[in-house]
User: Fold this.
Amino acid sequence: MIYSKETVEGVVRELGIPKLENATIGEVVLLARRLEELTGIPFIRMDQGVPGLSPCRVGTEAEKAALDTDLPAIYPPAEGIPELKREASRFVKAFMNIDVAAAGCIPVTGAVAGSFGGFIAALQRDPAKDTVLFIDPGFPIQKSQLRVLGQRWEQFDIHDHRGAEPLRAKMEEQMAGGRIAAIIYSNPNNPAWISLTEEELRTIGEMATRHDAIVLEDLAYFGMDFRTDFGRPFEVPYVPTVARYTDNYILMMTSSKIFSYAGQRAGFIAVSDGLFGRRFDALAERYSGSGLFGPTLTASILYMMTSGVTHSTQVGYAAMLKAASDGEFDFVAETSEYARRARRMKDIFERHGFHVVYDTDIDRPIADGFFFTIGYGDMTCGELMTQLIHYGVSSIALSTTGSDQRGIRACSSRMTGGLFDTLDERLAAFAKDHRS
Amino acid sequence: MIYSKETVEGVVRELGIPKLENATIGEVVLLARRLEELTGIPFIRMDQGVPGLSPCRVGTEAEKAALDTDLPAIYPPAEGIPELKREASRFVKAFMNIDVAAAGCIPVTGAVAGSFGGFIAALQRDPAKDTVLFIDPGFPIQKSQLRVLGQRWEQFDIHDHRGAEPLRAKMEEQMAGGRIAAIIYSNPNNPAWISLTEEELRTIGEMATRHDAIVLEDLAYFGMDFRTDFGRPFEVPYVPTVARYTDNYILMMTSSKIFSYAGQRAGFIAVSDGLFGRRFDALAERYSGSGLFGPTLTASILYMMTSGVTHSTQVGYAAMLKAASDGEFDFVAETSEYARRARRMKDIFERHGFHVVYDTDIDRPIADGFFFTIGYGDMTCGELMTQLIHYGVSSIALSTTGSDQRGIRACSSRMTGGLFDTLDERLAAFAKDHRS
Assistant:
């Protein structure tokens, strides 16, 4: 062990973490930082999904030029600046071959603001629909948003329901009551890095149409299923999306991972043309307006949260999207570095007796990428996460992501240089101590 | 008339504005822009409160330097970067002589995000307190936020309740039931540009303590009561604030007006030390956490809306606050240009038979500044706003701000050069046509 039981327990007490096994991502980060500070021993930080690359310089240069104008003084338009809306629409076409009008592409202060606003609109549009369905495992913050809003959710772990028919049966069971307002999942998946197949996406789309639920498709790791090269604009293969199978969708995009731009808080949502112009009596009544979904979401909901998105950042984001669609910035090639890091990490874990938990997309091994999941024998989530902390390796317990499986989430983003050897040594020590 | 009845009516129909008299600020802006586009005749744009000066270059230079580092790739801390928290706390001390710990100074994506999060925390902390009290007239967006959240509010127009005792009587009447969770007002006031006296602030503070309501003091126009020079750091006179009279407060600050930085969406809230550390059972239960007000607001509410504030902008904002507190950037002198513009506008209005509606702070003429209010005879709000549009002058009806008075809000920010002569001519034409 790198950190003694006493040291870890002391810091847990100091930070007021009620139960280490159930620690949130924020608590794990604080714990790792504090232990590093106290002991001088650095952690292998597999916890937070932070970009491990430099920001896309196309964006920072465009932002700097914008900062030299008077634009920082001027409120951004509620619906976003025209060039960003246009480039967002073009990007969706270039890499997904999906048509969404520029009007429906709305900048948000991080995709997190997009899901916050999207949840509100989806849940307010029809009084009979009051529940969000999570296809888990998933991003805990999205459930926390519903906690803020005081709204209901249901969830299931997709692990035992892969494939079109099992998924359809499970979704039908959850949606039959008619209360589901929205369906949310991420693809590629945070934390499990599974990728839904076209047939699974078709099923989700069909269920959304059948039960009139809005799909919030979280594409934070857009194009990062590195088994396929999705990096060439306006060419097959295109990134898989539910948008091919239903008109009831909001795509959630972010600059955080594909452009290593997490610090600037820039994302956009793409609301399907059909949904954008659909009228809901409940929205018309609540906001004394047209009741049209897109304009209400933009002007009456998102505008009330931040009154627009940082002006210079919108210019930078537009420039990055344009560079990608022009074929001048290959974000897939850039971020494929994460796949190489993940592969090396998985090899090390497996060498020491660990296994990948979510290991296949039905019949195909999952991709290497930003995240993966790891188990050790039948250790519970909290046990494994806690034990690894004693060996200087921080991670997230899968139980905090809506997973029913035993294991942890590991992030590959920060693994560079000598850290692989350190990981190897620490896991060797772990394995030695835990061999039964 | 500059625009014929038919032209205006045509555009109102085209834009789908249900009733011009009740037009929101957004609708007035669209109408003015569209009329300009159609006719080629520019408007005197007194509608939106947009900075009419260049952005503070201390901020843009610091942002540019930050953009050259790896900081744009890195998620900002949920609670804000340390230098911004420190400078925010120092700024509050320098210009208000109020002590708020850096921990309680939390960056937000515009003060609008601060009130959104502040409302949520204030309304969730105690199930018995479910209502916000507006001391009106006020910023319509804050009521719109409560509409998004589905929360209750009450309001009164302060016009007939100026002075400590009348105000106390009115507030006691509204607060006696115990349902008021928060009290909100802006000072200097948007739209009326009245400034509350020290005795009035004392009354509000005492009522907040007595009935355990949290004051959300909106200081968007900080230091812009130009009758007094508040621009010297760490010296009397200090900007008036309710923080001197209660511990139940959240101050809402923004870079938008004092640094002409509206485009970058940067503000901060300052939560009093007492409130920051106060524990609420309802918050502990809902968020399975400590229940402490400040940490819950930061990590469980604001973080769920945007996951932090644009990283480079935090660096820029910190630099501007530091320059102000160091006495190197006199934001009061900079923005006093608005007072000169307002004075000239008021003179022109008065020359043509208009009058200032909210004209005194009890016994003292109000300041000249960013906004003022104008009436004409006994014309109603909607009538005057609508009539002025026909003469190419756009404004906001006071009725949309919670005011019971008859008139409009005018913004001085964009009046430069030849526009004063144009205003003079247009008001002369108005007066000629409306003389009874």
